[in-house]
Amino acid sequence: MQYKIIQKGPFEKVEKFEKKLNEMAMSGWRIVASLGDFYLVLGKDKH
Question: What is the DSSP string of 7-42?
Fold first, then answer.
């Protein structure tokens, strides 16, 4: 499995962050953990 940690920028609009998450979900990334209010850990199966 491949992992990536992402965060919402301090001045980034929620809509832009949601769009980024939706695009990542379409390419196979899934949220595996939340680190507080600011960080998400995403995982993707290697094929």
Answer: E--TT--HHHHHHHHHHHHHTT-EEEEEETTTEEEE
Q: How far apart are CA 34 and CA 41, in angstroms?
A: 6
30: its two tokens: 């899934």
| Contact criterion met (CB below 8 Å) for 40 and 5 | yes
pLDDT tens column, 1-47 = 899 999 988 899 999 999 999 999 999 999 999 987 778 999 998 86
Question: Could you tell me which of 29, 35, 39, 33 has the C-alpha nearest to residue 7?
Answer: 39
Tokens of 27: 């390419």
